[in-house]
Structure formats: structure tokens, C-alpha cells
Amino acid sequence: MSSTKDHSGVTTVATYPIAIEINGKPQQLDVHPWTTLLDLLREQIGLTGTKKGCDHGQCGACTVLLNGKRINSCLTIAVMHDGASLTTVEGLASGDDLHPMQAAFVKHDAFQCGYCTPGQLCSAVGMTAEGRAETSDELREHMSGNLCRCGAYPNILSAIEEAMPATREQLERDKGVSR
Amino acid sequence: MTVKTSPVGKPLDRVDGPMKVQGQAKYAGEFPLPGLLYGHIVNSTIARGRILHIDTRAAEAVPGIEAVLTHENRPPIASYDKPYEDDDAADGSPFRPLFNDRILYNSQPIALVVGESLELARYAASLIKVEYQTEEHATDLLTNLDQMSTAPADLPGPRGDAKQALNNAAVKVEVQYTTPVEHHNPMEPHASTVHYLPDGTLEVYDKTQGVQNCMRYLEDVFDMEGQIRILTPFVGGAFGSGLRPQHQLPLAVMAALKLKRSVRVSFARQQMFTFGYRPRSIQRLTMGASSDGQLQAIYHQAIAQTSRFEDYTEQQVEWSGMLYKCPNVTLDYQLVPLDVYTPLDMRAPGGTIGVYALECAMDELAYAANIDPVELRQKNFTDFNANEGKPYSSKALLECYEQGAERFGWSKRTMAPRSMQDGHQLIGWGMATGMWEAMQMPASAKACIDATGKLIVSSATTDIGTGTYTVMTQIAAEAMGFPMDQVEFKLGDSNMAKAPLQGGSFTVSSVGSAVQKACQELRMKLLDTVQQTPASPFSGKTPDEIDFADGWLFIKDAPEQRVKLTDIAAETGALEVEASVEPGEVRDGYATGTHSAVFVEVKVDEDTGMVKVSRVVSAVAAGRVVNPKTASNQIMGGVVWGVSQALHEETQMDHNLGRFMNHSLAEYHIPVQADIGDIDVIFVEEHDEIVNALGSKGVGEIGIVGVAAAVSNAIFHATGKRVRDLPVTLDKLM
Ligand code: FES
Ligand code: FES
């Protein structure tokens, strides 16, 4: 535990050190006990790709992959994730090569404003890893935690259907690497 | 040499797509600035009265809190109405945030707490104590109808004698529909990040549909002419919510001016319910027809809510006087002022409500006259707008009916309600016509060749997800004769060439026309420039005889005669053209509109009353479609909105408190992925040389109009029950 100083130099608010790997990069961060994982990303380390639509776990815009599983980053406190590995939308592509899910989203025009898109992408990759949804209706059900006010749902579905096999392969390869 | 094909009309991927899928598109609340402070808004908890006392001491004492702004200590702001009147202002006296102690509506902003972090500001805001003098409020449209007065709208006068014709009509329908308050709720909450520059001027990243609208507003309200620049590279959805400057903008500026620091203010989702919305309304329709279904008379009255300080009007009833051929029409539009905020244009404002009522009534008429709903509409088709007394520049609506019905399989429909069951599922097929205006506004664009030979085109418009970046790039590439990858379109900066608000489906027709003209003129100017050199091989050539490829300008018939664009630019300095386009005079003689035919299948569970929209076919006539991929996405999105209007959306108010109750995305229902079935979009051929130089009418609104009616009509067909109150929820079907 360490402390930060406020503008007048008075020591007031404690922060806690955590070690967390974000998009493959290990980081040492000092976080306030109340900071959500979402605010840590957006406000503290400038990774604004992850979006805030409600801050209450009601929209899915903040979906990230925590140790490979999709979660709403607005609903969890950063300090709880010492030692975790996190993937955000900024970490999906490998260099200039888009992740198959990203490429399919562009091809199928699976967005309009793009604000729900990072959450949709992480959610779709997480859903593929879960391996529980196969049919279109199942995919629709399992993607229903991610709102899209622009209503790009049919295109989102087409993109996911196309990208799932390649995403599965990539997940297998990644597993092989980490073993 | 390969023959060049125009990029216009091609289903190209979005040029900003890669940025959006990699999280690189930055929205208003995402720009980092050194020493940035965060503001959190405190909202009133009463609907009407005065602030007697506001105690901010505890909040100010929190370490890290820099200021608490209230009406008592804010920087000076304009006091007259005029400076607050933006491009989309309603008649009246616009709301002035933190102006004085008056409370005009519940959840009105009354203080801004500014601190070093979001959490601190939000925590400190909870320590503020407010003492009010409460006055009695009225917020319920239905119980205040005695307060109604005629809306200040430009309605066409009565045509013929509707009353008489209704008395004589063989078939008659008299119905009333009600529609609820809805909130835009774009996924990105409104935010403004104000960069306080060393010279005291401001650069503001704002979520808006009009960068120059917001710039003028701030200049006028804060008396800062020439000291404000608004930047909006990306907008996370708006649907009308960004047509007027919202109060986070002036509040953030107040804090920046007071503290001489950069400040960001973002709305929490709950605060997205503290400004404009679609008004609640009552629609009364009486329709008369001959026994063979020929319309004889329409009476359409709308009664809608507004605030006490502005008379918000939209086109609710005009559609009933222009969509069909009908000799006797009377339209009426009434407003009831309440202690609420002013309503605000929301996707297809007015049309969404008025056409819903008209098209449900048409279905009721079809059943009263026992005529197929499509046939009834075909029978009453007109290519003349009788409100305006002008023919339509084009109206391929009959083709929409035909192609939509064909794709949907309408001919297999049986007319009787409850006649198409499938086990426990009641199947219903319904349809409706949709309509929106095809407007054009004055707009400008700048085109230039940069040092690398690339074409850079710009205009102060925005891209709210509609695909502006992409379609403008296509239009520029076509007009200039450049390949797409040699063109860049820039937008979202108030310093750019003048553009109208992005709304009303007129961006392609207005800004697109200016982009086209600027590029055509730049092409001329380039040719002109190379013709100046002595013994130029280009002398005497017309713009049609030249072409561009890989950074070269050459003669089509003699491609070896060429000159490098960068050389021309280097020799002559920047080659730049700014062009402006006004709506053409030829438009004056015509009415212009987009049209659609929407076909919907619903499945209603007989036991639970659960409604599922299983498929939709939307056939649209919108002139020339610049990009079928982004355009059909717009229509699909509109259809999703229509399904939402029909089945899900409703902001409910506790009238005792005068406050919205379901102000979260858990309780304010919009469709999720599982709620949406197949959506099939057809663009029918429609040529229109009158509407604008591009022949393109815009597709942002037409997708939603008529959908709620088609869904309601399908529900009637499935269940035999007419629910005339939106949204059609389970309880109403029991
Ligand atoms: S921001 Fe986390 S679910 Fe909405
Ligand atoms: S693309 Fe705008 S909310 Fe999904």
C-alpha cells in the first residue's frame, strides 16, 4: 500500500500496487481501492478502446477478456485483479493484421457509430472460447448482453458466424503457445 | 489502361472501419489532456420551484475538489434568449443551465462539482444539500388536456370538407392512438472535453451533430466570438440527441473558464434522461372511404406535450395530407405545456408517430372495407403532394409495394385475423407505408491536392455512424476521377467549410452535393493550371478528356502526355477550391420525399402473449444509393428502432415526483440481439434529377417510419386484437 498526495500536498488517499498483464504487456500499477477495471483502462492508462455505456453492467460496451473470459469491466474493481491477464480491443489484432473477428466486422459492416463495437468484439471472441453457442438462435442469445443502439444486430450476427471458425483456430494456437 | 469504374453505388467497406474495430476511434470523452479535471453534474430532485439554499461546503472540503459551480458563483453568461437559440431550437425561451434559482423540470442541472478524478467529483456531489421551495407541478399529458393550444406549426389549411365527406362515407374508421415518451440513448453518453489553451481560447471535443452550431452557441452564451473551436471526429450514436448543444457543454466551459483549466464533463447513463426526448402524444384519426376503398376524407389531430419554456413542434400530422390521394383533409396539432424539459428531434421526428397512427388506421380501414391492405394503399396512391400542391420529383412507392410483397410472400396471406396459426404460435403478417422528406440545405466543402498528390476534401459535418466519412470519399473520388485510396475526407471541425446540422437525412444531399461540386471545380482548376504552361499538350482539352491515375494527370487518348500532380501543386502552391451549393431552383416546382413499404411477420405465443418479430422486408425508394452496404445498415438500424418503438421503448414517469423512473438501460428497454430476426432490405430503382445533383435522397430516417405500424398490424392479424397504445407489451395483449 502506498499513498498519493492531493493538490495541496496533504496525504490522503491510499493506493494499492497491482501487477497485471494488459494486451501481453506486464504492468505495475497503483490503483485506488474504488477504481473499476474500466476506469483504470480508460482514465488511468489511456486505453479508451474499451467503452463506457452505462457503468452498471447493463450494456456490455465495456466487455473485455479477463484471463480469456468475457466480463463487464465496469462491474469489477481493479484492485481485485492482481496477477491477472487482460485483453482489450486494442490487443485483439496482431500488429497490422486484424483479428478474424475484427476483419469480419469490417467486411459485414457490423457497426455504425462503433461505440458498442469493442465490447461486441471481445464478447464474440469470449463466446467462441466458451464453445456453447452454435446455431444462429444460440448466437443471438449468447450475444444479448451487448446492446447496439444503432441496431447493427443482423450484420453483427453475420460477422460472428463467418469469423467463428478462424477465431476458434486462433484460440487453439494461442493455447498451444501458452502451454 | 483499365477502364475506371465509379466508386459511387458500390458496397464498399467503411473507410473508418479499421479504426473502429481496433478501438482507435476517439469519442468526445476520450481525449487525454494534461491536468484534466472532471466535472459531475448535480440534478434537481423537484419538478418545479426554487432553490432556497444550496450548501456546497462539505463538497468543497473534499481534498482534490477544485470547485463547485452553482447559479450563485458561475462565470457570466448571456441573459437574453437569443444567444441560446441554436440551429434546432424550438420557439420560445431556451433552457439556460445554472442561470438562476428557478427549477423548470425534475433532474434539471443545478450544480457542477469539479475535481481531480471522476470518482472524487461524483462522491463530493453526493455531499451537496439543497433546500427547495416546491411549487405544484403538472407532468401528465393525459390529465392536462384542458391546457392544450394550437401548435405554432405551418400546417396546410383544410382541404375540401372533411366533415361532410365523413358523413357521406360508406366505410368509416374513427380511432385514437397513444405513443409514449422515448429517449435517444445513444450508446455513447454525451460528453465534452474542454481544452483550455494558454491564450484563454477553447478547443472543445464535443459529442454533437453540429460542430458549428455548438461553436456559435458557446460564442454567444459566453461572449467569446472567434475563441471557440469544436472538434468531433467520431460520434457514438446520436439519433437527434446531438442536434442541440446539451448542457454538459456549457457546464464544462463554465468550469474551464472559472478555473482556467481543462475540464471534461460526461453524462452518466441516468443523466441521458435529463434533456430532450420524443414527446408523448395522442393521435386521433377519422377516415372515410367509398365501399371500394377510395379515400374520401381524413381528419388527423395530434396532441403532444412540450415544456413550459419552449413550444416543440415536429411534423406529426402533415403525412396524412400528402401520402395518399384524398380530396377532403383536415389536420390539427395541439400542444400541452408541462413542467418537463423540451422534447427534441429523435430519429424521423414526427413521422415516427404520425405515420404510425395513419398506417394503423389504414389497416383498420382495410379490414372495415374488406380489402387487402396492400391493395388499399395501391388504390390510393398519388404522385402529387396535395399539401404543397406540387408533383413529387419521383415516387417509386408502387415498386416498393410490388417488390416488397413479392420478396415477403404476401400473396400467401389469408386476410382473417388468427387464420395463420402454427401450433401454439399465432402468425401475423402486417404491412405499412413509410415516408420521409428528401430535404437539402445549403452546404460548403473544400477540396485540395496535398504535397503527396492526394485529394483532401473537408466539410464541417459529422459522422454519427451513418457512414459520412465513407460516402463523401466515394462522392469525391467519383467527381475528381481519383481512386478511393487517393482521397481522404475530413469532418468534425468547426473551422472547416460550412455544413448544416447532421440530421433529417439531408447530409448526403447537402454536403455530398458540395463535395461533388468542389471536386469538379478542382478538376477544372488543375486542367486550367497545366494549360497555362507554354505549348501545353493539354491546351484545348475539356475536363472529360483528362484523367488521373497513380498521382498523374494525363490525356485519356494519349496517356503518355502526363504531368505529376505534386509538380503542379509545388509550382503553383496549394491547389484549393471551396464550393457552396444551395438547393436548386428546379426543386421549387416539386415535392420531394423518400418512401418505403414495410412487411412484417410476428409470432405471438398464444399462452404467454409474447411477441417476436421473426422477419421484416423493407423496400425503400431513396433515389441513387451511394453505398448500398452502409445504406442498408441504416435501413436495418431503422427497422430495429421501429421494432423497438412497437414493442419495447417507453420512458415512464412518476407523476407524483414528475421524474422519469426507468432511467437506466436495464429498465428502459431496447432490443437486444435475441429480439431481432431477419431483416431484408431492398432498394428499388428510382431516378431523380430534380432532388439534387447526386440524385440521392438520404436514408437515415426512412428505415424506421412505418415499422411500428406494420408490427402493430401484424399483431392484429395474429391475434385479432387492436392495441392502440405503444409499446405493445404483454399485458396489453392479455
Ligand atoms: S459500461 Fe459496463 S456494462 Fe455498460
Ligand atoms: S454501432 Fe453504434 S451502438 Fe452499435
UniProtKB/TrEMBL annotation, chain A:
Q: One GO MF term, please?
A: metal ion binding
Q: Which SUPFAM superfamilies does this one have?
A: 2Fe-2S ferredoxin-like, CO dehydrogenase ISP C-domain like
Enumerate the Pfam families for this protein.
Fer2, Fer2_2
The record ties this protein, via InterPro entries, to: 2Fe-2S-bd (IPR002888), 2Fe-2S-bd_dom_sf (IPR036884), 2Fe-2S_ferredoxin-like_sf (IPR036010), 2Fe-2S_ferredoxin-type (IPR001041), 2Fe2S_fd_BS (IPR006058), Aldehyde_Oxdr_Iron-Sulfur (IPR052914), Beta-grasp_dom_sf (IPR012675)
Q: Tell me if tRNA processing is a UniProt keyword of this record.
A: no
Q: Which part of the chain is the 2Fe-2S ferredoxin-type domain?
A: 16-92
Q: Which UniProt keywords apply?
A: 2Fe-2S, Iron, Iron-sulfur, Metal-binding, Oxidoreductase
The record's annotation in PANTHER family points to: OXIDOREDUCTASE WITH IRON-SULFUR SUBUNIT (PTHR45331:SF2), OXIDOREDUCTASE, IRON-SULPHUR BINDING SUBUNIT-RELATED-RELATED (PTHR45331)
- What's the protein here called? 2Fe-2S ferredoxin-type domain-containing protein
TrEMBL record, chain B:
Q: Which SMART domains match?
A: Ald_Xan_dh_C (SM01008)
Q: Where's the Aldehyde oxidase/xanthine dehydrogenase a/b hammerhead domain?
A: 22-136
Q: Which Gene Ontology molecular-function terms are recorded?
A: iron ion binding; oxidoreductase activity
InterPro entries reported for this sequence: Ald_Oxase/Xan_DH_a/b, Ald_Oxase/Xan_DH_a/b_sf, Ald_Oxase/xanthine_DH-like, AldOxase/xan_DH_MoCoBD1, AldOxase/xan_DH_MoCoBD2, AldOxase/xan_DH_Mopterin-bd_sf
Its recorded name reads: Aldehyde oxidase/xanthine dehydrogenase a/b hammerhead domain-containing protein
